[in-house]
Amino acid sequence: MSGRKIDERPVSIPEVKEIMDNIKEQMEKIDAEEGMSHFQEITYNFVNKFAKMETRIAKKIIKFLMNKHAIEELFAINVVNINPQAVSEIRSILEKSFTGKSLSDQQLEVILEELEDIKTS
């Protein structure tokens, strides 16, 4: 199967998982015996192993970080992919971010609490 580029934008691992689930489903409908290519299979296994939340929650967190805290999209996606649990972890993700480097430990703690609220809602 040859691919063609339709769109290019950064996405989180949970979003890739959703995309790969759709591809797997389509490939099984087309040719259940052949299925996905080797590369697609490797990608599918990777995202299933490392997706730390549902796509719906991932998109909600990315939107929240970008809108409420003005964190750039790539850094918001990295927060979703890594799923930090401590201030030091989120600081290391956001330290190169224009907005993130100016956040105090207290502000980062609040962000972590807000992220937990989003994940449990």
TrEMBL record:
GO terms for biological process: DNA-templated transcription initiation. GO terms for molecular function: nucleotide binding. This is RNA polymerase Rpb4/RPC9 core domain-containing protein. Gene3D superfamilies: 6.10.140.10, HRDC domain (1.10.150.80). SUPFAM superfamilies: HRDC-like. GO terms for cellular component: RNA polymerase complex. It holds the Pfam family RNA_pol_Rpb4. The lineage of its organism: unclassified sequences, metagenomes, ecological metagenomes. PANTHER family: DNA-DIRECTED RNA POLYMERASE SUBUNIT RPO4 (PTHR39646:SF1), RNA POLYMERASE RPB4 (PTHR39646). It comes from marine sediment metagenome.
